[in-house]
């Protein structure tokens, strides 16, 4: 099966948007001291800068499931494909707690072990490899049940610090567990809710085997249906997100409250909005070929390579900014979630964040283009399949 341009474009677009979030995390003046989604302290531009990046993780996880389905269809050996998905999952978990964690924090002591989207996808592939013997429709139903129903077990608690509580947090909730006096394990991406999104993506792979006109119609119906269901649930304020919306000081902030959804773990309403927008995007860009989609698709063809490299590029910009602002290497703090930011401040205002973000994306384009060409010309190198 030929590459599906809408998947490459959607994945590339969210990778580009993702770099905005990580640039803000590292470079914005208030990134380590204020929550951009806190309606008491934020402003609309900062809120939107963070909110739009909520698209990234669910779409990336969902399309990872879709790609796994399409890969399985292209493989003539189901057992070998399951083994590949299992190895890929274990590789991503290992990569997350080594190179990715170092790229995020630049801390050679690994004071924080951060379970985030890469390891969440890794665990998803592991479970998917074990479940691939089931029909895609069955996996899709399981995924929908998880995405819509995991709220029913969110209130379950075990003894704080117990092994059971740690495992439960890793599976269903976000949380942090001390691993001695100088190390902290942070479970940011609960495995089961994100697995549900991946299983839905896997089942959706079936739709990509239909004609373009047929699947575009289905994508639009699914996308609009998800968004309408979100509006209904959000208006009722009863189920689907623990953070209810409340009227604010004006219409703009009330609207921000309405779309201020829970990501850790991903709520049902959150998934409806983000995946609903994905389906509308797939409808809009299916088979669309122009210079813009071609450029963005380059990032989507090598997402892991892009993800790994972009952290180091942003850190380079951060170091250059801090040195230009008069800080020294000794001032830079790489402990905790400081990312190298001095305790006394540093960083750029929001306009500067956008300038750095665009610079990062532009700088990475030729590298991604080169790596995709290298992969395409060296298909005999099986290790490239893992990047």
Describe this structure in words.
With 387 residues, the protein is mainly α. The chain has one domain (5-386). It contains 14 helices and three strands. Strands 1-3-2 form a three-stranded mixed β-sheet. α3 runs parallel beside α5. The chain is globular. The mean pLDDT is 93.
Radius of gyration: 21 Å
- Overall tally of structural domains: 1
Strand content of the residues, in percent?
under 5%
**Widest beta sheet: strand line-up:** 1-3-2
Distance between the termini: 20 Å
Mean pLDDT: 93
Class computed from helices, strands and strand pairing? mainly alpha
Pick out the low-confidence regions: none
The biggest sheet, with number of strands, parallel, antiparallel or mixed sense and barrel status, is:
3 strands, mixed
- Helical stretch tally: 14
Order of helices and strands: HHHHEHHHEEHHHHHHH
The coarse silhouette is globular
Helix content: 55-70%
Strand runs, count:
3
Q: What descriptive keywords fit this protein?
A:
three-stranded mixed β-sheet, globular, 387 residues, 3% strand
């Amino acid at each position: 099966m030929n590459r599906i341009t809408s998947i490459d474009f959607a994945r590339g677009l969210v990778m580009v948007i993702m770099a905005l979030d990580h640039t803000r995390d590292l470079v914005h003046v208030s990134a380590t001291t204020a929550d951009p989604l806190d309606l008491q302290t934020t402003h609309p531009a900062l809120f939107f800068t963070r909110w739009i990046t909520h698209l990234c993780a669910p779409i990336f996880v969902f399309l990872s499931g879709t790609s796994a389905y399409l890969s399985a269809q292209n493989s003539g050996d189901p057992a070998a494909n399951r083994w590949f998905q299992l190895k890929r999952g274990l590789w991503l978990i290992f990569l997350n707690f080594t190179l990715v964690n170092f790229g995020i924090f630049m801390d050679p002591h690994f004071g924080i072990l951060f379970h985030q989207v890469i390891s969440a996808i890794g665990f998803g592939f592991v479970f998917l490899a074990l479940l691939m013997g089931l029909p895609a429709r069955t996996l899709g139903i399981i995924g929908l049940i998880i995405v819509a129903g995991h709220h029913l077990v969110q209130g379950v608690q075990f003894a704080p610090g117990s092994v059971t509580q740690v495992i439960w947090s890793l599976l269903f909730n976000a949380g942090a567990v001390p691993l001695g006096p100088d190390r902290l394990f942070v479970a940011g991406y609960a495995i089961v809710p994100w697995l549900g999104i991946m299983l839905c993506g896997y089942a959706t792979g079936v739709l990509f085997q239909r004609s373009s006109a047929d699947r575009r119609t289905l994508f639009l119906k699914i996308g609009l249906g998800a968004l309408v269901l979100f509006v209904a649930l959000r208006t009722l304020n009863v189920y689907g997100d623990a953070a209810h919306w409340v009227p604010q000081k004006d219409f703009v902030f009330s609207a921000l409250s309405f779309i201020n959804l829970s990501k850790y773990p991903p709520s049902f309403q959150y998934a409806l909005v983000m995946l609903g927008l994905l389906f509308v995007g797939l409808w809009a860009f299916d088979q669309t070929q122009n210079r813009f989609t071609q450029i963005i698709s380059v990032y989507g063809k090598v997402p892991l390579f892009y993800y790994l490299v972009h952290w180091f590029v942003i850190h380079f910009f951060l170091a250059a900014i801090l040195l230009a602002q008069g800080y020294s290497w000794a001032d830079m703090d790489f402990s905790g979630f400081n990312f190298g930011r001095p305790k006394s401040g540093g960083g750029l205002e929001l306009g500067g964040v956008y300038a750095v973000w665009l610079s990062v994306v532009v700088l990475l384009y030729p590298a991604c283009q080169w790596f995709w060409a290298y992969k395409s010309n060296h298909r005999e190198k099986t290790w490239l399949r893992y990047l």
